[in-house]
Amino acid sequence: MASKIFIDANTLLDFTLHSATYLESKQLIEQVVNGKVQAYVTPAIVHIVGYWLTKAYSAAKAKELLLGLLADIQVIDISHEITLIALHSKMTDIEDALQYYTAIYHKLDYFISVDKKLQKESIPSLPIYTPKEYLREFQ
Q1: Is 84 exposed, middle or buried (0-12, 13-18, 19+ CB in 10 A)?
Q2: CA 41 to each of CA 6, 76, 129: distance values in angstroms, whole numbers, following the listed order
Q3: Domains of the chain by range and CATH?
């Protein structure tokens, strides 16, 4: 069975904007497209990525890129209860906490992010990998 991963906004932005970790992010997305990995995001991730893509390109191009990604990436939601758990967590970044605890709630296997601070705040039930680390470990 394919691993279930949560893909953070920074990884999707690196892929779509051809930024810092573009090659690793591209390889990760290729695994998703090829069905080797099941990928998930929240509406907040779509919002964040859409905002930056619109600034970089145009609204039409942003929608096109997001629709392409969402053909293979599933959007999951967060409940009131999970929001409260995230806000009561030790994570200081609210957006990160909301994403991370949503991934835990949905029983995902790995959380993919280039945010090193977030990696330090992870708990054993949901390890955080950079795209490069994940590919090295599981490819």
Answers
A1: exposed
A2: 6, 6, 15
A3: 3-134 (3.40.50.1010)
In our burial notation (b when 16+ CB lie closer than 10 A, e otherwise), range 26-44 reads ebbbebbeeeebbbbbbeb
Measured in degrees and rounded to the nearest 5, phi and psi for residue 110 equal -145, 150
Q: What does the pLDDT look like over 38-95, one tens digit per residue?
A: 999 999 999 999 999 999 999 999 999 999 999 999 999 999 999 999 999 999 999 9
Distance between CA atoms of 127 and 66, rounded to whole angstroms? 26
- pTM reported for the whole predicted model: 0.94
Report how far residue 25's alpha carbon sits from residue 108's, in angstroms, rounded to the nearest whole number: 19
Confidence grade of residue 1 (pLDDT, cut at 50, 70, 90): low
Task: For residues 19-39, give the mean pLDDT.
Answer: 95
Q: Which residues pair with 111 in a beta bridge?
A: 6, 128
Q: Which residue carries 């394919």 as its tokens?
A: 2
| Other CB atoms within 10 A of residue 58 CB | 11
Q: What is the pLDDT of residue 121?
A: 84
The end-to-end CA distance of the chain, in Å, is 14
